Amino acid sequence: MMKKTFQTLLLAGLLPLATFAQDSTQFIKAGWTELLAKAKKEQKPIFVDTYFEGCHACKEMEVKVFPGKEVRAYMEQNFINTGFDVFKEDFGFDLCSRYLLHGFPTYLIISPEGKLVNVGIGYNDADRFLNFLKETTARYKNGKYFYGYATNVKKEGPAWYQGLFNKKREYPKDSVLQEFLAKQKDKTAELTVKAMALVKELPADYKDYYMKNRVKYQEMYGPDMNSSILARVIGADMKELAGVAYEPAAFEAFLKKHEAEYKPGGDWDSVKAEFATRYILRQSKNVKAYLEWTVANRDMNSNNLRMVNFYNGQDIAKDPALKDLYLQWAKIAVNEKASLELLNSAAHVVGDLDKAAAKQYLTWAVAKAEMMNLTDMVTRINAKIASL
Predict the structure, then answer these.
(1) 23, 81 in Cβ contact below 8 A?
(2) Of 53, 262, 313, 376, whose CB neighbour count within 10 A is largest?
(3) What separation in angstroms does the CA of 22 have from each of 18, 28, 40, 54, 96?
(4) Rg (Cα) of the chain, in Å, rounded?
(5) Are 128 and 337 within 8 A, CB to CB?
(6) pLDDT at position 254 over 90
(7) What does the alpha-carbon distance between residue 45 and residue 39 come to, in Å, rounded to a whole number?
């Protein structure tokens, strides 16, 4: 449910960390009017890091990624860089309200005219983050924006929406959202789309319109908003499988039934992998069948591989058959772009089965750690490579 997800993301990673502050050299503190004026003068977009004190992923970005030589230099050259605490600063609340922020850190890149150029979410290793910055620069230079959002940053909307961004974080009742949606004439209007992202299940007419116009929604509001709406649609379709024991042929028939509906969105491979994760792994708790499915369907989503190891790693480590399937999947999904966390964990899992693969993963991990100046980690990984 969105409410649970919303609250979980807000509270995720709460650790007794030191007070968070934007002290990397490329970040400046200023009011929004001043930042826009500076952006217009220098003809650069504004990079906004939204964070909160106690957010572990936010702190990891501050310590490991933002100070890196390549990242810092690129940010200084191409952006006006700033940050706002979404719990302590009023403008942080305004940003949350305008863009329906629900996971942190979130990076907003906004043009001097107030247009949203791009959105990024969560911790990223330095190389992946630098790629995101370069993609964002290309979008800005090519005049590409997520044009569904208003260009002003302030709290707007009815009481049910404003309640999300007060200090109590009051989630609206589903009946209120359903009533609101029933009255709207424009299914692509900003507040309407936000309600679509919050409601537990899209009304039938909204679902039909959204599925036929998903590319347009992506262009207007970007991937994060759309992932929230798409989760509603996937959740509704998953009801067909509620209480149904996993059977490969039946699941394939289910996928075939829904393929035509989802495929025009251009992300059918990701969608069917999400169905498999929800049904085979989470609902049926069949790790072996899930790994078999990912290998057979060549799931390239390395984050899915990371998550199955995170939640089911002990089972995989104890069962040679599961470990072999994990290795097969790793050879499909893992490359030099995979996260540092995954490269290390995958090498650990498969090291006794395929030393060459483990060495390759760790070699890629060394390059990432060096880019972030993680000297202790580099030493440990190199020692592991030498021991294989």
Answers:
(1) no
(2) 262
(3) 12, 8, 23, 13, 18
(4) 22
(5) yes
(6) yes
(7) 6
